[in-house]
Design goal:
- The chain is α+β, with helices and mostly antiparallel strands.
- It has one domain.
- It has 2 helices and 5 strands.
- A hairpin with a 4-residue loop joins strand 4 and strand 5.
- The radius of gyration is 14 Å and the shape is globular.
């Protein structure tokens, strides 16, 4: 599937939800990809698999926002598909992170469930 998207004005948004008290993990997710017939993307601030040599290493809000925007653009362009696993540099190349685009799940299976409605 190929969808034309003007990347200068994306049709999706990335929301970042955080707990200022640090009790819960922060996360980001997209809103608007479903309007294009694609799955929405979700990403926790903490890597969920693999070894973390610098626990508790986390993605910042701006990092998560940038990554989700990049992944969304790649998904729209057909360069990223469900099941793909890929490695990205982080922290100016000091860290390598492997991502996997898992199959879609029901909305109530992720922390972002109904968060967009609460922000409207």
């Amino acid at each position: 599937m190929s969808i034309t998207q003007d990347s200068s004005s994306p049709s999706w948004k990335v929301l970042w939800i955080f707990d200022p008290d640090g009790v819960h993990d922060s996360f980001g997710y997209t809103v608007g990809l479903a309007d294009l017939g694609l799955p929405e993307l979700y990403m926790s601030e903490r890597p969920s698999a693999g070894d973390d040599p610098d626990d508790p290493w986390r993605f910042s809000g701006p990092d998560t926002h940038g990554l989700l925007n990049d992944f969304a653009a790649r998904l729209i362009a057909g360069e990223l598909r469900v099941g793909d696993e890929f490695t990205e540099d982080s922290d100016a190349g000091a860290t390598k992170v492997t991502f996997r685009l898992d199959p879609p799940v029901a909305p109530d299976q992720v922390e972002a469930y109904q968060a967009a409605g609460a922000m409207a």
